[in-house]
Amino acid sequence: MLPHGWLFPGRSRTDPISSRQLHRAVQEAAEVAGIHKRVSPHT
Q1: pTM for the model
Q2: Can you tell me whether residue 23 is helix, strand or coil?
């Protein structure tokens, strides 16, 4: 944890986002960007 909190805080702000939340955010960003290929947090 960073001194001022998580880089990617979850809902409670005391915990980081879950891997599932990260995956959903990446999928949503790809959709908004018009990327039709399969994407993941690792790409």
Answers
A1: 0.71
A2: helix
